[in-house]
Design goal:
Radius of gyration: 25 Å
Number of helices: 4
Structural class: mainly alpha
Number of domains: 2
Helix content: over 70%
Shape: elongated
Distance between the termini: 68 Å
Length: 81
Amino acid sequence: MNAQSRTMSELRSLIKQFISFADERRLKLEQMQTGLELTKAQLHRVKAENGDFDDEILEDDGFTSTINGMVTNKEVWPDED
């Protein structure tokens, strides 16, 4: 019984460690993603200020709205079946 009790205690400890590491990793990934988004926004702003931006980047063809389910493909791209 003592061995089983120690094993269960060790298992609980390992599970707590795993959850802690997973939470830290998730937070680090979110921080990296936020950093990337900030860098992209800053780059876009600098390019716009210099007049050196690509019109294709700024042009919205409705793809995002379609993905989000706000409109159908036929409304956005009527020439596609």
